[in-house]
Design brief:
With 153 residues, this protein is of the alpha+beta class. It is 28% helix and 25% strand. The chain has a 6-stranded mixed sheet with strand order 3-4-5-6-8-7, with helices on both faces.
Length: 153
């Protein structure tokens, strides 16, 4: 299957991050079958552009929650960046995660030079909690309530 392209992929999908995640799934390093209540897959999901039906990125959990926190990651292919897809995907994933009783907070990390990713997290309501290694961001249930009451402009 390696090197095979699917018809519903954007021309520049998969990006390097998607290939890395797929490799982890294939090697069993990422537990694709872990579920909470049989409903939520604590793994990787594709981001599909509504207007074209093409897969343009990925968003997902780095595994099930640990100590009440679940970590997320995301990426959108270069040809579709700057359209709000990452913010929408991250916001949707956060909303889903925070409905699960075992999740008190969602966390994410960025590289120091990835300003676009930092902005995505800020737009989704995350707060910077640690500047080391680029930044660690967190959003909890009360933060989500505040973000919904006072959306960013």
């Amino acid at each position: 299957m390696q090197g095979r392209r699917l018809a519903n992929w954007a021309d520049d999908f998969p990006a390097a991050g998607d290939v890395f995640i797929a490799g982890g799934l294939h090697r069993g390093e990422i537990d694709q079958a872990s579920r909470s209540g049989g409903e939520v897959l604590w793994g990787h999901h594709q981001v599909v552009e509504t207007s074209s039906g093409l897969v343009v990125g990925g968003v997902g959990f780095h595994g099930p929650p640990k100590g009440g926190e679940v970590e997320i990651g995301y990426g959108i292919v270069p040809t579709r960046q700057g359209r709000g897809y990452a913010t929408e995907a991250v916001s949707t994933l956060v909303s889903l995660a925070l409905t699960m009783p075992e999740v008190v907070a969602v966390v994410a990390s960025t590289d120091a030079d990835n300003v676009a990713s930092q902005r995505v997290l800020e737009k989704a309501g995350f707060q910077l909690v640690d500047r080391s290694d680029g930044g660690r961001y967190r959003i909890g249930r009360s933060s989500l309530d505040d973000a919904c009451a006072h959306p960013p402009r």
